[in-house]
Amino acid sequence: MGMIKDDTVRNATSYYWGERTSTIDWCEENYAISNYIAEFWNTLTNVAMITLAVLGIYSSIRHRHGKRVTAMYVGLLLVGVGSACFHATLKYTTQLLDELPMLYLCALCFYSLVEIDVDIKFGKRLPIALALFQTGITLIYVFWMQNPAFHQVAFGVTAVGAIVFGTKRFSELNIGSETRRTLSRLHLMGHLGMWGGFLVWNVDNIFCHQLRTYRSYLGMPLDGLLQLHGWWHIMTAYGSVYLLLWAHLLKLARLGHDTMFSIQYFMGIFPHVALNNPKK
What we know:
This protein is mainly alpha-helical. It is built from 9 helices and 2 strands. It has helices spanning about 40-45, 45-60, 65-90, 90-115, 125-145, 150-170, 175-205, 210-220, 230-255, and strands at about 260-265, 270-275. The protein has a two-stranded antiparallel ribbon with strand order 1-2.
């Protein structure tokens, strides 16, 4: 998802990870800060997604909210780790670790929203169908159509499916006004993060030359403020986790447990589902 930039000089084998093999190279100057990290800021900013995912996994396991909820946060963790590995190395293998988990995360969300109740409706048929679909997409992308546009379309189809079923589940709920407001706010925050991130992602691609010029004037560390792909990571990390929290709380509301839990913030900036008035 992006444009290959003219960083040939900084793709030489003299750097730690050697010559770039990825089909994509982003606007951040390669190996500008460290000989061991190809894109320093694009790697560092994945800490936001990793932290939010780990917090979600901890919350889900601690409160026993089920494997399907935990799996969604694990999927987000794999996206963050894969993205960090890709930007650190700019290798094709790690590029796949960045892109493919995005598809799998959407599939996990889709499954969790369809099978939101305790009783499984579709048995093994739905997970098998999703696994076959994702396997087919993976094989086509890896061995035949190595085009980022194909990945984007496949990701979009799966994401739309998750959004449609999520909206359907929300409309079916008979819940109090406070929970409904919380769910609506989470949904709005999620979309603002995703679409805001998509906006800066496009600005980074389209105006890369100008951004590089401005960054050269600022110098380290202020140039990091204009690393817009890094801001895409941060904004989509929060956008993704707010949508996962929406799905998480949606499940709790479906089970009638929504009043027992609320969205709280670790260190004031990391949202997660927490128990109200926990026993001491």
